[in-house]
Predict the structure.
Amino acid sequence: MSDALASPAAALPVPPGRVLARGATVLLVMGLAALPFAVQGSWIYALGITFANAVAVLSVSVLVRYGGEVSIGHGFFAAVGAYTVAIMEQRLGVSLLVSLPVGVALGVVSGIAFAWPSRNISGIYLAVSTMALALALPELINNAASFTGGYQGLYVAEPLVPGLSMSLQRYYVPLAALVLVALALGQFRRSRQGMAMLLVRTHPAAADAFGTPRVWARVAVMGISCGVAALAGCVLAFASSTVSPSGFTLWTSIFFLVGSVVSVYGLSLPRALVGGAFLTLVPQLLSASGAWIPVMYGVALLAVILAGHFLPRLSARIRRQGGTA
Amino acid sequence: MNAVLDSLAFDLFPLVWSGIVTGCLYALGALGLVMIFKCSRVVNFSHGNVAGFAAFLVYGFTSGLLLAVSWGVAVLLAAVFIVAIAFLTYALISPLIQTSDLTATIATLGVGLIVQGATLLLFGADIVSLDLPVPRFATSVLGLRITGYDLTVLSVAVVTIGALFLVIDFTKLGIAFRAISSNAFAAEVCGLNLARVQVFAWSVAAGLGVIGALLIVPTTFLSATTVAAFMLQAFAAAVIGGFASLPGSLIGGILIGILMNLFTFYVSPEYASTFLLVVILAALNVFPNGILAPVRGSRV
């Protein structure tokens, strides 16, 4: 009885399918944690970047799911995180332990700073203004060369835990970040704030009546999403050991969106992994023929979108025909 | 004081003049974006990639890489290809438009990626130069240097945009286009063929993109990314026009052309994209419905 009063979420019975999925996720994480003892070094490196990209994919999915908005500029916020880590290491000599929270905070702040002038801007306008943001990013980085290292970029070499093998750290830190973000997002989905944001998305007028103004929700979603993107940038810089403007072009931002679409905007860990793996492993497999990568991404994007559009209709039609026969 | 006046005469007028010339090209790009948006509520992010592909096709057809034909034939062939691509894009995206325009917009990004990849596959990542067969002359009018290129751009833009406005204002197709852009559902109830008008808009938009791309390339060079980058200016022009007004985007294009020229000359050429971002954000805040929208109170 007291349990039911304590929290509304705890009172809801968890469906058996959810329990199975959760168990599978735990098994997946345990498998990934054991992987460095089984496979080769280059794969460990690629998987570390996969995890970082998966976090970035999550940040775009958060915006789509909770805000109903599309951003083609999340590479900017990832760059905020990545360059915070690199610059703080170069100037102050501190490790990820200090620079990661700073990077995430800067990501949230810059996300809110960008969301504020565009708070009344929705849908296509946000997509266009984020595209301009992504296009402005490389020139901003290149012109602040004394801080950012210009075209050459900067190295990230400071270990998080001194003494431990760096290649292992480059694997486990992104993995930990991915697990933490996925857990936090699961928690957020059940929280009051998460519900309020979903209500704003589906019924803005009702949410307004319940005391959640639309502008607040939009700015808050952007803040959360950009914070996650900055976190992704931080671990991406750590995992890849270098940051440079060529890693944060308009294509980076578009690819994050492609990853989010390919993972069907999923906020769970396995879905994000699919998106991250698509962004990291496809280019590796196609590295011999670089021009096929955009073609592949475009085809995958269209295929997932069209499948998401036609499959439910097709299955509904099949079901209807089965019912009448 | 005299120095200021001198600099005005020597710098400002030429800057404004060349701004108007390039602004017409931005307007051509923006008109295509707005035409597609007006009738199908989709922002076509593949517009720049497709237009760039068209410029490369013309290069390929004239240079002997794919064919070796005269310039006019090459442009015609490229236009056929591009309209076919526009038609295919429309065919892919039209089922999505009814359910979610945002999903359809993301889908255009997919088309853009494919076209970009095709450009890289066919022509590589190298920089090529593509010139226009324009009369080479330059005269000076009131201290202003006017070249054959300027006059070509202006006359092509005026003829194209004039023809477009005539079609939209006076033909049956144009009236159908306006009806669908003001209320698609009501227009369909009245018996208009939505798909036919949308195909018209997508093809015309692609054609405008081709013209814009061919005219902008002589000022820079042609690479797999130049035309796509040029389209950011077109997007900014469309935003200034409110994304749903053809005359607004024309004004927006010319405004962007002049502002960009002034900014790159007087402030810094290195922050051009950042400046555009600021212009877009400012425009969305100051006149969210476009520069030509009547000012009225918002509904609470």
Chain A has one domain: 42-285. Confidence is low (pLDDT under 50) at residues 1-8 of chain A. The CA atoms of residues 11 and 28 of chain A lie 28 Å apart.
